Automatic annotation (TrEMBL):
Keyword Ribosomal protein: no
Superkingdom: Bacteria
Positions of the NAD-dependent epimerase/dehydratase domain: 4-241
A Pfam family matched in the record: Epimerase
Database matches in Gene3D superfamilies: NAD(P)-binding Rossmann-like Domain
Name recorded for this polypeptide: UDP-glucose 4-epimerase
Signal peptide coordinates: none
Keywords in alphabetical order: NAD
SUPFAM superfamilies according to UniProt: NAD(P)-binding Rossmann-fold domains (SSF51735)
């Protein structure tokens, strides 16, 4: 099998690539190493497989590639590449999000319609739901994203569906719920919090810390991607969440303190526009149609991330 992984040096993309190589896939990884965060972290992400005989890395933006040529003989597309960050997506920067998240997805789908791929798996986000009291969130909920980032991910979902409906591109969209774990991006909350505790620095919380999330370990995200690719299902959208528990942010920091053996120097600030109060995933559709069930419990996953970051920062 031959797979294309976009964003292959990123948090999820590198973990997925590593798993696919273990499953004896040939993997073409595309990543443009933008300056959103320190590229040495991405280099570390791929260090274990950069020289693997079945891996090829292309350091370019997908908007700058001959995608029809790239997709020759490719069986699966795992489209993980995106400009990340809810809080950074406002104002003039939205042009970056529309170019990378919307145009990049459309160009990849346009090339896919003329290829013989078996599946196009698109990485979406729970941010498409916006701020809702209707919990747990179901795929049939009304979608009202409250950040430009969420708008860009929803646009990608809609593009996937229309290319499936009009051109029979075998797409599936996976709505990820707050992914954490080893290799987590340095702009994401858990990475920031754990680093701050390890280095005895101030830990800033936007809001009162009573917001809650359904956290999903990266290994379960990877599992869902592979199940989606290998399934016979097309044209559908699935929530991909964690072990079913909704964890309050303050409680997660309490657990970090316990795991690290230090107290956090907490500072509470005003809520940032685009953040939502609660998320909770109803994953019954993914269980029924993809046989998806998460394996990594929250406490285990957080302990693993703490150990990973200790190696970076202690």
């Amino acid at each position: 099998m031959k797979s294309l992984v976009t964003g292959a040096a990123g948090f999820i993309g590198s973990t997925l690539t590593e798993k696919l190589l273990k499953k004896e896939h040939q993997v073409i990884g595309v990543d443009c190493f933008i300056d959103y965060y320190d590229s040495t972290l991405k280099e570390n992400n791929i260090s274990s497989f950069i020289d693997h005989k079945n891996f090829t890395l292309i350091e370019k933006n997908i908007n700058d590639l001959d995608l029809k040529e790239l997709l020759k003989d490719v069986d699966y597309i795992f489209h993980q590449a995106a400009q990340a960050g809810v809080r950074s997506s406002w104002g003039e920067d939205f042009e970056i999000y529309s170019h990378n998240n919307i145009m990049g997805t459309q160009r990849l789908l346009e090339a896919a319609k003329e290829s013989n791929i078996k599946k196009f798996v698109y990485a979406s986000s729970s941010s498409v739901y916006g701020d809702t009291d209707k919990l747990p969130m179901q795929e049939t909920n009304r979608l009202q994203p409250v950040s430009p980032y969420g708008v860009s991910k929803l646009a990608g979902e809609n593009l996937c569906y229309l290319y499936y409906k009009n051109f029979n591109v075998p797409t599936l969209s996976l709505r990820y719920f707050t992914v954490f774990g080893e290799r987590q991006r340095p702009d994401m909350a858990f990475h920031i919090f754990i680093k701050a505790i390890l280095q005895d620095k101030k830990l800033t919380i936007f809001g009162d810390g009573k917001q809650s999330r359904n956290f999903t370990h990266v290994d379960d995200i990877v599992k869902a991607n592979i199940l989606a690719a290998e399934s016979d299902v097309v044209g559908e959208i699935f929530n991909i969440g964690g072990d079913g528990k909704r964890v309050v942010l303050n409680d997660s920091i309490d657990l970090m303190e316990e795991l690290i053996g230090k107290k956090a120097n907490r500072e509470y600030q005003q809520v940032v526009k685009g953040d939502v109060k609660h998320t909770s995933a109803d994953t019954s559709k993914a269980k029924e149609m993809l046989d998806y069930e998460p394996d990594v419990e929250f406490e285990e996953g957080l302990a693993r991330e703490v150990e990973f970051l200790k190696d970076l920062y202690e």
